[in-house]
Design a protein that fits this description.
With about 160 residues, this protein is of the alpha+beta class. Helices cover about 30% and strands about 30% of the residues. The radius of gyration is 15 Å and the shape is globular. It starts with a helix and ends with a helix.
């Protein structure tokens, strides 16, 4: 999660993306979509699926068993405990913007099938993509136990891109 925040900070520092209040770039995934991608335990429930639509859009998806401290965390401005998939989207018309984002990666490996530029970072458990439509998207699955985080990230990204149209 710390590395995703570093990417987010770079995007903000670059001044990328318009205000998103009137035109969200992506939507939070539904509980059914999440359940199709990851295993929920018998007591797990979706605790949070929301997007913060400020300068860049960040969508948090958190699930897990009920936790008595979740209400306190939320009341003080935090998030509930549990497994998490985080999405970040920002509008960007210039390929050079993505190159600047990549400068924060030490282990970026190019991947195919998601637009003109896409990379995987095993260290971050994150796919970062620049789409033909001028979006920069990050899918972070670092907080989800997975035998194949790259495959999980690809599946999440495919759903996000399908929803974004």
């Amino acid at each position: 999660m710390r590395l995703l925040m570093k990417t987010t900070a770079i995007i903000l520092a670059l001044g990328l993306g318009p205000a998103l209040a009137d035109d969200p770039l992506i939507s939070a995934l539904s509980e059914d979509a999440l359940r199709s991608l990851v295993a929920f335990g018998p007591d797990d429930q979706l605790k949070l699926a929301e997007c913060d639509e400020k300068r860049l859009q960040t969508c948090a998806h958190i699930w897990g068993p009920p936790d008595a401290d979740d209400a306190t965390r939320i009341a003080i401005g935090g998030k509930p405990s549990g497994q998490r998939i985080t999405l970040v989207a920002v509008a960007s018309a210039r390929p050079a913007d993505f190159d600047r984002v990549l400068s924060s990666y030490s282990d970026a490996v190019p991947i195919e099938g998601f637009g003109p530029q896409a990379v995987w970072s095993a260290e971050r458990a994150q796919i970062s993509v620049r789409t033909e439509a001028g979006l920069i998207l990050h899918v972070n699955v670092a907080d989800v136990p997975s035998d194949d985080p790259l495959a999980l990230s690809r599946a999440v990204l495919s759903l996000v891109l399908a929803q974004a149209g």
